[in-house]
Amino acid sequence: MATSFALSPHSTLARFLRWGTAALRLLPAETAHDVGMWLLERQMMNRLPLPLPSITGLIEGMSAHLPGIGDLAHPIGLAAGFDKNARAPRGFAEMGLSFLEIGTITPRPQAGNPKPRLFRLDDQAGLINRMGFNSDGAERVAERLRRLHWQHEPVPMGINLGKNKDTDASAAIEDYSFGIETFAPYAKYFVINVSSPNTEGLRGLANEQFLRELAFRHRADLHRIWVKLDPDMPRRAFQSLVSALSDAGFQGLLLSNTHRVDLPEKGGMSGHPLAAQATACLEWAHEVLGDRLPIIASGGILSGQDVFQRIARGASAVQIYTSLVYRGPLTVLWMLQELRAEMDLRGYRFLSDVKGSYYKDA
Ligand SMILES: Cc1cc2nc3c(=O)[nH]c(=O)nc-3n(C[C@H](O)[C@H](O)[C@H](O)COP(=O)(O)O)c2cc1C
């Protein structure tokens, strides 16, 4: 039985890593992130004092497919923003994530907003960030990727693109084009980020005219270009935009980015408080698109049950960020165990049968 692969939360390894994650959370949020990245760059999962359980048996029947990206061992990938500059892709792959998204990368280097700019909401399993696209810039990241020789097999890597803070909206298309051209040799897929709340004017680019122009300009690459939208659009505007993106020929959608908030801090809210809104976006998109465009779900996916619910609502795969902060380096393993339990409970052997089942049962 698949559940025989379960790692007990009471095992020494689990306790050790839980302790480490709790210790990191004693630090200010961005310092903790920097320490985590430092460890991941050094591929710390390979250096643990105890062997990691294999996920091979656990993921039987859980493979997923993303058009233009390929087959995935399971549906849980890394969301943008954790590794903005491609510093630790190998470390993330060792954590068991099935695909990785690097970025957001801006054409020129920029520092982002002043610190503090990342805040934990511990009691809600949430985060608020106003990082503001701190980026090493396209040139340095491309050089890092050139040296990395990433194979995209078995873990495909996408590049999430943004515009510089001081690029005027009228010239924004040039920033995205520059990103697509610079990263063409390294990206399995691209994500056009027009949804982060922390760069003034960025969300204004989530309009039909801008995105159609971008699609036309890069029509030869459209099979690998996805668009990431925010969860704060009114339903009708959102639905008309996703229809237009489908007509324009984009490969797929990422739903969704963070929810814009002013309190208790200004920025983008992620984690549990985002879950309901991000799920609604998925349902709204399905209402107008059916299966016309593949969707990667993101936003408050903290457990295997959450993964099940998003796949049931039509997502082809999911991405996580905040759950890694709260659940630590074994997050993927825990979530896969929970997903397996949820599938067993509901009588599903294959994740492909779960996809869209929410609408069929309705
Ligand atoms: C600190 C932080 C930085 C982020 N940076 C980016 C980014 O650069 N580009 C992007 O598209 N999304 C970014 N995101 C959004 C995540 O990719 C993800 O869509 C969002 O956090 C919802 O997923 P979650 O609830 O699993 O965290 C960031 C999120 C956080 C918490």
Q: Could you write a compact summary of the structure shown?
A:
By secondary structure, this protein is an alpha/beta fold. The protein contains 13 helices and 14 strands. It has helices at 12-24, 29-41, 89-94, 138-148, 172-183, 208-217, 235-248, 275-289, 304-312, 322-327, 331-346, 351-354, 357-361; strands at 64-66, 70-72, 76-78, 100-105, 118-121, 126-129, 157-161, 189-193, 225-229, 252-255, 259-261, 267-271, 295-298, 317-320.
Mean pLDDT, to the nearest integer, reads 94
* Derived structural class: alpha/beta
CATH-derived topology: TIM Barrel
Number of H/I helices: 13
Order of neighbouring strands in the sheet with most strands = 3-14-13-10-9-8-7-4
Instruction: Give the second-level CATH assignment, the architecture.
Output: Alpha-Beta Barrel
CATH class: Alpha Beta
Bound molecules: flavin mononucleotide
Q: What is the C-alpha radius of gyration, as a whole number of Å?
A: 19 Å
Could you give me the name of the CATH homologous superfamily? Aldolase class I
Number of DSSP-assigned strands: 14
Ends distance: 30 Å
How many structural domains in the coordinates? 1
Strand content: 15-25%
